[in-house]
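Bench log, entry 3. Co-assembly request; chain sequences pasted below exactly as received.
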Amino acid sequence: MAGLSVCLWWGGIVLLLLLLCRMACAGLLTRYPFFSAYITAVLVESVALLLCRPATSQSYWVAYWVSELLTAALSFGIALDGYNEVLAPYPGVRRMARFLLGVLFAIVGAKLIAGSWGDPLHHLPSAIGEFERDLRLMLALSLLAFVGLVVHYAIPLRRNTLLLVIGYGFYLGLRLATVNFLPVERLASAARLSVLLQFAWNATAVIWIIGLWSRVPTWLPEIPIEIDYDRASQHTVRAFEELRHHVVDSWRSS
Amino acid sequence: MNPVFLAILSFALLWLLFLMLRRSRSEPDPFDAAAARSESEVRLPARHLLDQCFSAEDLEFVRARQSPALRRLFLRERRRLAGCWLRETRREARRLLRWHLNSVRYAADLRPAAEAKLLWVAAVFFLVSSALTALVWLYGPLETRRFLASTQELARILTQTTDRMAAAIHPRAVPRMATN
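Structure output for the full assembly:
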């Protein structure tokens, strides 16, 4: 198991290096600045943790949690890159996304404050683990809001952003499940789980390499469409009410 | 964290990612303002088609034949026709929603409250339509119409009774509290 884990670890480092090289060649480092920073941080983390092994040592434990929190915080940038890149031609949808994120963060933030009220950080590993769990939850919610808006408004996505979001969604889902179902004290040292997560991470890196291999131009509407939003919105609401009355009236006895 | 909540969250995320992947394969439709104007009109499914499903003459004709097999066939066909009519209305509702989303996604003044209101109106329509479909599927169109008529009558009686009760209560001033 240890040998496989080290192989996967090295494999992950090679994949990340390849990803960064391809992004640099395709000129995507500046297009996705937060994602590039995140990948660089994960690369540094992987090398640092490799140097701090074995996984049961105190230095590994400290390095693990510090880097986990740092990369979890940085990974917010992936969603931010997605919002900036995809929603740029849609100012209204972008505003809607900001509103949705605000509501979601307010709810999760209120839950966090309520949860930690009267429960001081008496047990550091649990507190860090729970904090990471809540961070990942916020990430999942921000990604969910983003993907929900993209699907709802049928916003076209090109390969670069599409596979970036899919890869991250896949890894985040798995990560969220593991930090939720495993006791936090065991997260840093659980060997089988570590191998599973490494597999998932390497698969994610492969998805990203495929997605970011070359630059695909963003789809932009050919002509800016000017539409009276209030009129369109009221018209659709009226149309739905008309349709509903028609259905109900048709079923009433004449 | 509640595992059920997390399971729902993960499932929703996976489902949306799948939808996103599926939609990304098709090229976006170019927006045609002239076509959009004509598409914004509501195309109501013809009412007379549904009225024919409830035709008393047809039912009498089938009853007069005194053939249980013919009656079963008649009711099955009427159920199928009513289902088709309801499906047509849902298709029209989906088209209207798609038209709206395609038209307003470029709008700079998109408002969450207005979008939420529209989603609510759409949800109510789909709820009514689904309830009708379920009733038609369970009891057939003729029984459904009778059931709706009796529900309507019950609602009317209840409204009348409530109105009478409200009228019977004479308004009286609340006694004032003594103040020092």
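Residues 68-104 of chain B form the longest helix (37 residues). Residues 32-164 of chain B form one domain.
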